[in-house]
Design brief:
Structural class of chain A: alpha/beta
Largest interface: A-B, 21 and 18 residues
Strand content of chain A: 15-25%
Number of strands of chain B: 8
Largest sheet of chain A: 7 strands, mixed
Radius of gyration of chain B: 21 Å
Number of helices of chain A: 12
Distance between the termini of chain B: 33 Å
Number of strands of chain A: 14
Strand order of the largest sheet of chain A: 3-2-4-5-7-6-12
Helix content of chain B: 25-40%
Distance between the termini of chain A: 53 Å
Shape of chain A: globular
Oligomer: heterodimer
Structural class of chain B: alpha/beta
Shape of chain B: globular
Largest sheet of chain B: 8 strands, parallel
Number of helices of chain B: 8
Order of helices and strands of chain A: EHEHEHEHEHEHEHEHEEHEEHEHEH
Strand content of chain B: 15-25%
């Protein structure tokens, strides 16, 4: 029991978008900045219904560029701030996200992927993987969680705030339009009641004392005068990112020890992959399952180990090889064959994964 | 049975579509039974005429809509609306309308043909209709606008929560239609409608509501306790609102456990799940 918006742990029936709003509330998010775009609209709708009851704030901006930059501003002011977007909105947000990468600002962005390129469909895809993991004009110093159930949307939205504020890198929760609308039961809870301590926030600006005398000056810069200065900064960021990566990277797998074929999928497609692999293993086939929960950073060591032992990786995704591109880079040097199951903008069913895996298993 | 015209409204993801589809199917079944009853009477009349050497006239079958020649039917062929011989299918006279101007192109789309095969007229956009409209396709199908003018029973599945409920105001014949009843579908397992006060506040936001449907569930995890707890909350809210609970809806297996009435005495409507095959 707690005094927060969720007073008791309870099973509830919710949509994915609604789940995100409740999770942000439970995580103590103080303000959401946003601009409407399907299929994330109901995150804003529910947040704006819930926020006034719990003393939280919302600012609707004129576009996603502003939503991203106001989130940056909120974080600079020490607020646990977040935004949510999709598709073309995610494209616009890459500029403020780049700024947050450079300035180590813990903004949280929830993305409900829609079809692309451009406006495409308002419905579903996994085509924002490249953009979300490596977008912006930099090196992709950000963290990207890819949940696959409403329970995970709740858990990882809460976790995203803590990861962001602990490591000071912008953090994404990358879901999709199907998850946004998906209705299923989940347990909602007050993080404190489960022993989850929210990392305290602090203002970047307006701190007490004289800079340089009472405290180090706060130089939060996204502009540098010389190549050499920038070079040093980027190497420093890279070193800190790589140091953090192993702590943050998450994955799920089963059946990979003896597998000749391993199905690799993320997000909502991983649900289909899991069902397909369970069925194949019941039939005695040596097929494994590997799901990166973090797409950035990837669980490199584990993925390379799987690729080193399996003959083939069947990569299933609702995009034209965006997850595959990340996986190929991660397993570079191994001799594993990549077998694609790409359905850009379309759902991937367990039957399709089952059939393809069955075709290629030795 | 007099003409039934019902609109199902409620919170986003409250289960409106499931309730609306099942209600349309229930009405189609009841209407078909009515027709069958009349057909049987007509056949008995024909046999009696034939025994007496009389001549059958089509007028004897007045009120019975058959797809084709009235002389070639047999009652056994009329038991199923999906009879392989199309000429023996009986139109149910029930129309189901997908009224969602916010997300107009996907909710019922995958189910349309399946529902139509059960003898129900479905007014909803097809994929071909959506071609080229893109995101700007938030349009009301003309047939939906005039749905209340149709003969027979009409079930309106009003999508997209509180905002969606306002679409009723642009339907021709609303609110003066004497047959129309507007029912709010409530799932007390959803956090926005989890307490009596929340339900009362929510219903006040919906505008006109003539009755409540308790549709409390937890998806695949639903058991009779979940439904009955919902029945208590929804019934208490209905008392505050001074409107009836017209039904408690529950999936077949749970409805069978509860029986014909829930713990509050509300009639139980068994639900067959369709929406898992819808988009959302």
């Amino acid at each position: 029991m707690g005094e927060g918006p969720i007073t008791e742990e309870k099973r509830m029936f919710m949509t994915g978008n609604e789940t995100v709003a409740w999770a942000a509330l439970a995580a103590g998010a103080e303000i959401m900045y946003g601009y409407p775009i399907t299929p994330q609209n109901e995150i804003m709708h529910y947040w704006t219904r819930l926020a006034p009851k719990h003393g939280r704030l919302f600012l609707q901006t004129e576009d996603e560029l502003s939503a991203g930059f106001t989130t940056v501003g909120g974080v600079l002011g020490g607020r646990r701030a977040f935004t949510a977007t999709a598709g073309p909105g995610n494209v616009l947000m890459q500029e403020p996200v780049s700024m947050a990468e450079m300035m180590r600002l813990p903004i949280v962005i929830v993305v409900m992927q829609r079809g692309g390129p451009s406006t495409a469909t308002v419905i579903y895809s996994q085509q924002e993987v490249t953009l979300t993991t490596l977008g912006g004009n930099g090196e992709g110093f950000r963290i990207v969680y890819s949940p696959s159930t409403n329970q995970e949307l709740f858990d990882y939205t809460i976790k995203a705030f803590n990861t962001a504020w602990r490591y000071r890198f912008p953090t994404f929760v990358l879901a999709d339009g199907y998850q946004a609308k998906l209705r299923e039961p989940l347990t909602i809870y007050d993080p404190a009641a489960r022993g989850i301590k929210m990392v305290p926030t602090e203002a970047y600006t307006g701190r007490p004392g004289t800079p340089g005398i009472d405290r180090p000056p706060g130089q939060y810069r996204n502009t540098y005068n010389t190549e050499e200065e920038l070079y040093e900064v980027i190497l420093g960021l890279a070193a800190e990112y790589e140091k953090m990566a192993a702590e943050v990277a998450e994955y799920q797998s089963f059946g990979t020890e003896d597998a000749t074929v391993v199905v690799v999928a993320h997000g909502v497609v991983a649900r289909a992959a899991k069902d397909a692999v369970e069925k194949l293993r019941k039939e005695g086939l040596k097929v494994g399952y590997f799901r990166p929960v973090t797409l950035r950073p990837l669980p490199l060591a584990e993925l390379r180990a799987v690729a080193g032992s399996a003959q083939k990786l069947l990569i299933a995704e609702s995009a034209y090889g965006q997850l595959a591109r990340l996986v190929k880079e991660a397993i570079y040097g191994t001799k594993t064959e990549i077998v694609p199951l790409y359905k850009p903008g379309l759902g991937v069913t367990s039957e399709e994964i089952y059939a393809r895996a069955r075709e290629i298993v030795a | 049975m007099s003409r039934i015209v019902e609109a199902y409204i409620g919170e986003y993801a409250s289960g409106k579509s499931e309730c609306a589809i099942n209600r349309a199917l229930e009405l189609a079944r009841l209407r078909r039974e009515e027709v069958l009853s009349r057909v049987r009477k007509a056949l008995e009349y024909r046999q009696a005429l034939e025994v007496r050497g009389g001549k059958l006239e089509v007028g004897n079958l007045e009120g019975i809509r058959l797809a084709n020649s009235p002389r070639r039917f047999h009652t056994s062929n009329l038991l199923s609306p999906t009879s392989k011989n199309r000429r023996f299918r009986v139109a149910s006279g029930v129309t189901l309308v997908d009224l969602d101007v916010v997300e107009p192109f996907w909710t019922l789309r995958p189910l349309k043909k399946e529902i139509e095969a059960k003898g129900i007229t479905v007014i909803a956009w097809d994929r071909e209709d959506a071609e080229g409209l893109g995101e700007a396709g938030t349009v009301l199908k003309p047939a939906a606008r005039w749905a209340l003018a149709r003969q027979g029973d009409v079930i309106l599945d009003v999508g997209y929560g509180v905002g969606g409920a306002r679409v009723l105001e642009i339907i021709e014949g609303y609110p003066e239609n004497a047959d129309l009843r507007v029912f709010a579908v409530i799932n007390a397992s959803r956090p926005m409608t989890a307490t009596v006060q929340d339900i009362v506040d929510h219903v006040h936001n919906l505008g006109r509501v003539d009755g409540l449907v308790n549709n409390t569930h937890l998806g695949e995890e639903t058991d009779s306790t979940v439904v009955q707890e919902g029945a208590k909350l929804v019934t208490a809210a209905a008392r505050v609102l001074n409107i009836p609970v017209v039904a408690t809806a529950a999936v077949d297996r749970v409805a069978a456990l509860i029986g014909p009435r829930d713990c509050e005495g509300n009639p139980v409507r068994p639900l067959r799940r369709f929406m898992p095959r819808g988009f959302w």
